[in-house]
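Recap quiz, item 2
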Amino acid sequence: MNVLGIETSCDETAAAVVASTGEAARPWRLLSNVIASQADIHREWGGVVPEIASRQHVRDICGVVERALDDASCRWAGVDAIAVTQGPGLIGSLLVGVSFAKAAAAMLRKPIVAVHHLAGHIESVFLEHGAVALPHASLVVSGGHTSLYFVPEPGVYRLVGRTRDDAAGEAYDKVAKLLGLGYPGGPAIDKLAREGNDRAVALPMPRFTHADRNAPPADLMPGALPPGLQHLAEFSFSGLKTAVVRHLAHRGVPVTTGLTVPTDAGPLSRQDVADFCASFQRVVVEALLDRTFAAARRLGVASLGITGGVSANSRLRQDAAARGTREGLAVYVPSLRLSTDNAAMIAAAGLRKLERGETSSLEFNAEATMVIGKHE
Ligand code: KG4
Ligand code: ZN
């Protein structure tokens, strides 16, 4: 069975073809994976401009899908089902993919499956590594999310905990903006951090106060950790961001004006910026891994996935692998082309639903906010 995946939730227009193999150990094979990134367009504005993003998706979607079919040596007639990101994401962007997918499914008279974007990130590990040991936990760490999911069986996702405020990728992007490193910030900080001293700047490790622990968000119903231990899988990055702003202001960087400084000028030398990036990255990675490994231990998982755009981070990948070895836990991080937004993971999540006998009617709509696993 060939599934065409379509992903347009933010600023990447992506299409991919994934085939089911019938082999239990490696049930899916990636046939093509095409991504048209709009990063160059949004960079000029310092972040994603939703209206521009949706218009660009309209321009790119046909060519991207045709290319994905071509690369897979698959004709329209060879497509057995279509999987598309329903949400969460930018509504205008999502609508382009959803409308295209519905039109294609109606034309082909083939099933359509609406997929949750985070289910896609979680399944990227299974797409790349096959049937990893269960139960599994997946830390989805991206521009919009920092969430830990428990996967007791294939296709079941239970939300264990998530960030109380900013996502880790959002913290990367905001700090990069303050440092004048441009958009997207994650890759820029990652690169400069390699030249820096990660102990040069003392930044606070994100922690919760007792009061925070007593006030979980009203819509959060964690599924797997016992009450009293749920803070193990909760994250927070807004305090760190405030500490960064304070530190930079103290160093004379004009952060209060909202202006950015070029890295080769202003009060900070290139080495200062590199040291700062390395220190910031150390704290973020430690916070993510400390909580995730503690929660994984409590959950008794047999494997751990680290997925989403921030999992492209070189230090996170390195440190996660080292900790996994130390703690005897199998850790999987998808390769770079499957870490950041792509449609192969959406096709995989679609296949998972199809295998469970789930399809969607053409009536479903794009959803800017939607959660999975909350009440299971
Ligand atoms: O999963 P993704 O492509 O889109 C969302 O679903 O949000 O994640 C994008 C996020 C951005 O915040 C970007 O700065 C971050 O992933 N990112 C990174 C790296 N590459 C991308 N963060 C840290 N280090 C990287 N190498
Ligand atoms: Zn994503």
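The pocket of zinc ion (ligand 2) is lined by residues 117, 121, 142, 308-309, 341 (CB under 6 Å).
The beta strands are 2-7, 12-20, 28-37, 81-87, 112-116, 136-141, 146-151, 158-162, 303-307, 330-332.
End of item.
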